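User: My instructor asked us to take a sequence, write out its structure as tokens, and then describe one feature of it. I'm not sure where to start. Here is the sequence I was given:
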Amino acid sequence: MLGGFKLYKIDYHTHTNYSADSDAPMETMICRAIALGLTEMAMTDHVDYMYPVAPYPFQIDYDAYLFEFNTLRDKYANQIRLTLGVEFGLGAHLTDTLKAFVSRYPFEFVIGSVHDYHGDEVHTKVFWEGQTKHSGYMLYFNELLESVRNIDDFNVVGHMDYIMRYSPFADNVLTYDGYREVIDEILRVIVTKGKGLELNTSGFRYGLDCVHPQLAILERYRELGGEIVTVGSDAHYPRFLYERFDAAYDLLRAAGFKAIAVFRNRKPVMLDIAP
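Assistant: Let's start with the prediction itself. The structure tokens for your sequence are:
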């Protein structure tokens, strides 16, 4: 244990202007984290080989990225720990691509997230064309299932049920019971492989009044033996850093978790969240 979360405030999912969907300078994000009293922040900018080139080419010049990251890590070393991470866009066929990618750079932490289905981004009309709510959600979950089955080089699954954010239907509710079979299989694979889940607070920001994944999924992950959970805001701008973490910790306690994880050299280290 590194200590209680009240003394060790962290945000383990953040983006900067190296992600194509953010224009926030890395130093601005770091200074905001320091102002909030964070002890550690994981920088997890997007790398997504499946994302269409236009308008968001989710690739990073890591020579430039690492130079800036290392410079700022040293500059602010006495005020905050900066953890080098990445949010990698999963796809069932990207096993070798991810392995080669993470071996090239000194990442301590890798979020694996599905953002598309066979190149069609889940927020676009193309993805939802001809789909019902149920069939669209199942496309997403099945792609996630095949990805976690085939890929080993990630640490946690990012925002597991966030597909509801992009549903074009008036009723966008996604319940655990409605997708129990596929969700359980995803969770079993994650637990068997010793991987974790991310608790992502951005659902509040998108008007869903929930975290990703929702409480029932967190509870089921715990029932199946899962223990590794990171907590992240998915902030693309400074004002969203460490957003609604009070609610996140309340839900983790409700689900029976006693600790959250940070990562050192791709290995989880647990932090006590006991009251």
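For the description part of your assignment, you could build on this observation: The longest strand covers residues 81-89. Try explaining in your own words what that tells you about the chain.
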